[in-house]
Amino acid sequence: xxxxxxxxxxxxxxxxxxxxxxxxxxxxxxxxxxxALTIVAxxxxxxxxxxxxSGQAIGRFGVGFLGSSTWDPVTDQYGAWxxxxxxxxxxxxxxxIAVPLGVATALFLTEMAPVGLRQxxxxxxxxxxxxxxxxxxxxxxxxxxxxxxxxxFQWLKHTLxxxxxxxxxxxxxxxxxxxxxVAIMILPIVTSISREILRSVPDLQREAAYALGATHWEVIxxxxxxxxxxxxxxxxxxxxxxxxxxxxxxxxxIGNRPEVSASLFAxxxxxxxVIANEFTEATTDLYLNAxxxxxxxxxxxxxxxxxxxxxxxxxxTGGASGKIH
Length: 325
Fold this sequence. Notes:
Number of helices: 13
């Protein structure tokens, strides 16, 4: 017979039964799963609708639609390459400007700024994110474009004119102007997300670096940025998503010319801009289908860019999870 001590001992782990799931637990599980599947279904439905709406253009132009530079509604000849080029170049310019500036601003707010200065600057950044894109476009036309044309572009041409990127006539409205206006628009997103990521870095990281004799800059570089690099990369990806789909402000300053030029001073066009400009002017079925196919290209481009970003993130982190800390 078992002794009193053996009788009082807890049952082995293998014999314990997990408590049964209650009805609220089951309900919450299915509701959460339904919400996740709804998002997937929406993405699939959007892609299918774009594909269905562009069927005539896909059947006529095929894969050549992506590489053709002709966009002539009069003769019903359409190609997407100038718009793909403009979208990628303007987004790249925006990221090159916004990501370093946004991360530097976030570092200043979390690591260097006096306490009394932090909240006013954060408030201004949040207000900047709330400004409608059409307001940025109007400001770009009447303030930014004249200043770029008369000062910055002239300086770039004089200083870096030996590069093909900064050659050719200066119109003001240009690919570079479009990239700058998008950079201003995505700057609050990159800054806010980077700031939250940097704030989540444990103080133990900083204290350990200081204890080893690191300087303030070394603490930021080794203890803070290295810990938060995945989150900062995620902020850049979110900014890129906004840049790829930006419409009104870019339409007002980029020049809207379906041409491919090596010069950043030349006007350009983006996928979102051409859809916004010409959708109401589509007088033929093929014209409308071509615009739908541009929307499909933008949709696929956004998905592919995000997938590549996730793959790059896994490579940078040595195959670790791409979760944002």
